[in-house]
């Protein structure tokens, strides 16, 4: 076997991958589904949401498949009862942290969190919900930033930095107090760096950044970072 | 003072109770209709973008979400200063007719028919739609057909039977109507027309049996308020407000719906979550007015479609000066409106303009205030929003169709209770009549509970014999 190819086992299936591949990529390339949320092809993996965690034999910790590189003879389980239990808990916690009331949310029907909740059968949260209300930033002519729906996946920050190249968006504070900010925490309309390209609204998995007055089903373009990076390579 | 409490009132939309107060001789002194649930839309909408309002406020009601969508989106059109394409208006109207048909069918067949066909004194365990299906399967089938007909219009336009919030948007509607969908709706219209006509004939024949109810079910003079078209015809989407007095005289006409606060006052009572709107010029509570099918038929010159107009002429013979007063006849008016709506659906679909694909105008927030008014199945519905310069909601006021009739409910149940309820000997049939008069109005209380700021909390203290010795009402608490 060539040194440039590693052999590993995912869910009992023997597969081959490049040593630079992540577990997630190796799985996807071989038709194995692992749920993700903050991950988006074309952007640097963040490993923040922890939905893509997998069990690696010989390692007591759960590993995020989007950031962990493959290695030779790795044995991976992607779908054990333990993993499903943790994934459900993650979805519950995400739903509980900000105000995620699907029925009146603009993302209803086009929301990745909602899709995951429905896939995992999460129809309520066992932890009490945090109803703290945040002011919306509606100052931009075309976009809205609604912290009440944000899950801090940082897709918007990464697409703004890595694809558009302006790094208008970032995060302030830490832990549960984290918030998306525009430039140095200014109203969006006051931003010097923002080019109003709209990529942030195209990749937001929930209803946190969106185009004013447009149904999300019309403005979401999850494939955009992949599409752009592939064109750039050519 | 003794009290008889009916809680909950059944076969209505939402939660309410009725309290009947007796005097020393156990005669009925007064009855109160109390709405017992609370929602708070007017408060939690604050801070949201204005164009989210149609989808948020349509959640006020699962029975008539389209009416809320329309009132809301009309307010948003104003905030966005946009004139919508003609076919967008046609499609909004078409969807609303679907809404009126399904809601009226629900009220008449599913909720009230058990009283009308099985009888007011029929065993309460069986006085429901299931017994109706057993005993009168043909009538039940008609109800289900008409409701489905209406629901399918909504679904065929928007893809969803209820809460089509994304389809109706400021500036128009999301997608045009396809020829296939148009033909599917048209195919069902002859059957729908036939079914409502048969139902009307049967209802007219049965009126004689309900002579007592017609006389005593909320039969009293009030004002009547609603939208009319430019030509004074029946109108559910646009037009101007007309107020007609108890004797049929037009007391106010051509009122601008957006200036509703100039002629509608809103009172609050400590014992109910529902507001008490009244005609401002006559004061509270003398300015009691009614809305909904009965009121709409009282304020128009005619409906504007041939079959409905023929029925209207016959219906008006039951009143004086063209004014029908008895709340019981809301049922009759509702059936005429179903007929009218089916005729209109047919008329609109036969016009090829309905298939036009220009159904959306671009819209951005540019004004700071908007008022949308529509005729919901239950009456005049008002949404009023104020936004900041970015289009964020800072203030809302909703007057829900059902609220407009609040003063009239209390008058009607008092009238029925005085006639039928005997404080010395209670039976279920008496109390059901009190509920039945409420059903005739077809209130939607889950929609209508909108008081904010004055919680009608009351604490009652009873002694061991059940006698109330003290009560505290929150208003009077320190």
Secondary-structure map:
The complex is a heterodimer of chains A (234) and B (478).
Chain A: E1 6-10, E2 13-17, H1 23-29, E3 53-56, E4 62-64, E5 74-77, H2 81-97, H3 112-119, E6 143-145, H4 155-164, E7 169-172, E8 179-182, H5 199-203, E9 209-211, H6 216-219, H7 224-233
Parallel strand pairs in A: 1-5
Antiparallel strand pairs in A: 1-2, 3-4, 3-5, 6-9, 7-8
Chain B: E1 2-6, E2 16-22, E3 28-35, H1 41-44, H2 53-57, H3 65-79, H4 86-118, H5 129-135, H6 137-158, E4 168-169, E5 172-173, H7 179-206, H8 211-216, E6 223-228, E7 240-244, E8 250-255, E9 264-267, E10 276-279, E11 289-290, H9 293-299, H10 306-316, H11 330-350, E12 369-376, E13 379-387, E14 393-399, H12 401-404, H13 406-420, H14 428-441, H15 445-448, E15 458-462, E16 468-473
Parallel strand pairs in B: 6-11
Antiparallel strand pairs in B: 1-2, 2-3, 4-5, 6-7, 7-8, 9-10, 12-13, 13-14, 15-16
Summarize this structure briefly.
The complex is a heterodimer of chains A (234) and B (478). Chain A is α+β, with helices and mostly antiparallel strands and 234 residues long. Helix content of chain A is 26%, strand content 15%.
């Amino acid at each position: 076997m060539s040194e440039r190819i590693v052999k590993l086992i995912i869910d009992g299936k023997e597969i081959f991958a490049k040593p630079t591949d992540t577990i997630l990529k190796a799985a996807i390339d071989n038709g194995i589904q692992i749920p993700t949320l903050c991950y988006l092809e074309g952007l640097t993996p963040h490993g923040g949401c922890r939905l893509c965690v997998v069990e690696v034999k010989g390692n007591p910790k759960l590993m995020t498949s989007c950031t962990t590189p493959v290695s030779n003879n790795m044995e991976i389980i992607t779908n054990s009862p333990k993993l499903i239990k943790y994934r459900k808990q993650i979805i519950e916690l995400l739903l509980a942290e900000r105000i995620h009331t699907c029925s009146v949310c603009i993302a209803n029907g086009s929301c990745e969190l909602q899709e995951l909740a429905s896939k995992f059968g999460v129809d309520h949260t066992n932890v009490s919900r945090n109803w703290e209300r945040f002011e919306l930033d509606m100052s931009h002519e075309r976009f809205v930033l609604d912290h009440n729906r944000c899950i801090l996946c940082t897709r918007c920050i990464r697409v703004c930095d890595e694809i558009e190249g302006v790094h208008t968006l970032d995060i302030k504070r830490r832990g549960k107090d984290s918030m998306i900010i525009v430039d140095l925490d200014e109203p969006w309309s006051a931003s010097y760096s923002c080019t109003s390209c709209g990529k942030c609204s195209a990749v937001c998995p929930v209803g946190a950044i969106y185009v004013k007055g447009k149904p999300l089903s019309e403005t979401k373009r999850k494939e955009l970072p992949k599409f752009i990076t592939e064109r750039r390579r050519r | 003072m003794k009290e008889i409490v009916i809680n909950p009132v059944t076969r209505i939309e939402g939660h309410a109770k009725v309290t009947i107060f007796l005097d020393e001789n156990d005669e009925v002194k007064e009855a109160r209709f109390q709405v017992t649930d609370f929602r708070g839309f007017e408060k939690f909408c604050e801070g949201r973008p204005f164009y989210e309002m149609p989808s948020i406020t349509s959640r006020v009601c699962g029975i008539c979400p389209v009416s809320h969508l329309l009132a809301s989106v009309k307010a948003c059109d104003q905030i966005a200063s946009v004139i919508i394409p003609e076919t967008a208006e046609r499609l909004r109207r078409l969807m609303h007719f679907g809404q009126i048909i399904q809601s009226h069918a629900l009220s008449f067949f599913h909720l009230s028919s058990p009283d009308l066909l099985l009888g007011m004194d029929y065993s309460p365990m069986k006085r429901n739609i299931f017994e109706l299906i057993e005993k009168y399967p043909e009538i039940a089938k008609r109800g289900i057909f008409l409701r489905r007909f209406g629901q399918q219009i909504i679904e065929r336009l928007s893809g969803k039977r209820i809460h089509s919030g994304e389809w109706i948007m400021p500036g128009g509607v999301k997608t045009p109507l396809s020829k296939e969908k148009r033909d599917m709706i048209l195919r069902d219209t002859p059957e729908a027309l036939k079914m409502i006509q048969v139902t009307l004939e049967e209802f007219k024949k049965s009126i004689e049996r309900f002579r007592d109810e017609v006389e005593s079910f909320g039969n009293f003079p009030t004002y009547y308020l609603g939208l009319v078209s430019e030509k004074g015809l029946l109108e559910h989407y646009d037009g101007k407000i007309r107020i007609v007095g108890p004797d049929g005289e037009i007391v106010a006409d051509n009122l601008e719906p957006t200036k509703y606060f100039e002629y509608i006052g809103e009172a609050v009572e400590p014992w109910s979550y529902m507001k008490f709107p009244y005609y401002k010029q006559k004061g509270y509570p003398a300015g009691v007015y009614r809305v909904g099918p009965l009121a709409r038929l009282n304020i128009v010159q005619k409906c504007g479609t041939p079959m409905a107009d023929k029925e209207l002429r016959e219906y008006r013979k039951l009143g004086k000066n063209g004014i029908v007063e008895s709340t019981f006849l809301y049922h009759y008016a509702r059936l005429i409106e179903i007929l009218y709506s089916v005729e209109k659906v047919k008329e609109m679909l036969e016009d090829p303009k309905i298939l036009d694909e220009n159904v959306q105008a671009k819209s951005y927030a540019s004004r700071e205030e908007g008022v949308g008014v529509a005729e919901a199945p239950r009456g005049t519905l008002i949404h009023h929003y104020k936004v900041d310069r970015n289009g964020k909601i800072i203030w809302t006021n909703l007057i829900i169709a059902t609220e407009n009739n609040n003063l009239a409910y209390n008058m009607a149940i008092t009238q029925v209770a005085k006639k039928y309820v005997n404080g010395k000997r209670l039976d279920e049939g008496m109390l059901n009549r009190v509920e039945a008069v409420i059903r005739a109005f077809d209130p939607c209380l889950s929609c209508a509970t909108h008081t904010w700021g004055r919680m009608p909390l009351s604490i009652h203290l009873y002694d061991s014999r059940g006698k109330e010795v003290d009560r505290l009402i929150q208003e009077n608490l320190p």
